[in-house]
Write a structure and sequence with these properties.
Order of helices and strands: HHHHHHHHHH
Helix content: over 70%
Distance between the termini: 42 Å
Strand content: under 5%
Number of strands: 0
């Protein structure tokens, strides 16, 4: 009599890394199978930078605390970098799960012998690897317009992004939970993430908001990150200046991540119990 041992989750770091690399390779091959769509995203940056440049010609620099004709371009460039990071992180996991539902592979993925964290990271790893390339190209383009960033503030800005990352992951987990539970939840997910982006002051200063919206923006972690990053990259603020922002964002981020992971696990268990994981 032969006893078959059921497969166990991959132990250790390297097997998990191998699983993530498999996701990266798959997503890269899929992206390159549509080269026009792949390259059009980079071409769109040129149009975006051009729009910001011409808008800057009609914006009073003093309204955004800057000087010179490229003040608005510098202001909005930081906003675009942060909102791109947020929207990619918040939408990509839900989009990936929705795609797996459509092609009929979500059940096999969710019961694969890898940890849930490895699976979630693998589904977004390719886009996360591509993000620094996109941001470098975008900042390079605005640099050609005369926008200069303070090198001394780069590490402070990166620290703010690191503190903000768990918040993005938490929102992504909430979006994925809504996708598993309600299938087509794009209107709710889109409205929520758009509200966070608009109230962050990414494209215009929060000082132009009505008083009640201004108070909401004050507790929006994206707005806190943007204020700190602009101070660091455009004014050269150091570690001591951004430390309170880092601590505030980190507290909100950890709470959001715990809620998001709990919601995702609850949605996964509920859909598996009902036998509706693969339905779309």
């Amino acid at each position: 009599m032969t006893i078959t041992t059921p497969p166990r989750p991959y132990p250790g770091f390297l097997p998990g890394l191998g699983a993530v690399w498999a996701f990266v390779r798959r997503d890269f091959l899929i992206a390159w199978s549509y080269p026009v769509n792949f390259l059009s995203g980079f071409a769109g940056m040129i149009g975006q930078v051009a729009v910001f440049y011409f808008v800057a010609q009609i914006v009073d620099p003093s309204r955004i605390g800057g000087q010179g004709p490229t003040a608005y371009v510098a202001f909005v460039s930081v906003g675009v970098a942060v909102t791109t990071f947020f929207q990619l992180g918040a939408f990509r996991l839900a989009t990936a799960l929705r795609t797996e539902q459509f092609i009929g592979t979500i059940e096999s993925l969710l019961v694969a012998p890898v940890s849930m964290v490895t699976l979630q990271f693998g589904l977004v790893a390719y886009e996360l690897m591509l993000l620094p390339v996109r941001m470098a190209l975008f900042l390079g383009m605005v640099g050609l317009l005369g926008v200069t960033l303070h090198p001394a503030g780069v590490l402070s800005a990166l620290l703010l992004l690191v503190a903000f990352a768990p918040f993005v992951a938490g929102v992504a987990a909430l979006s994925a939970a809504a996708t598993l539970r309600f299938k087509n939840a794009w209107s709710v997910i889109g409205a929520g993430t758009a509200a966070l982006a608009v109230l962050s002051g990414a494209y215009f200063p929060v000082s132009v908001f009505p008083q009640w919206l201004f108070h909401l923006a004050a507790v929006n972690p994206m707005a806190i990150v943007l204020d700190g990053m602009r101070a660091a990259l455009l004014s050269g603020s150091g570690w001591a200046d951004v430390a309170p922002d880092v601590l505030a964002v980190l507290a909100i981020s950890v709470a959001t991540l715990l809620v998001g992971l709990g919601a995702f696990q609850a949605a996964f268990r509920a859909e598996r119990r009902r036998g509706t994981l693969g339905l779309y």
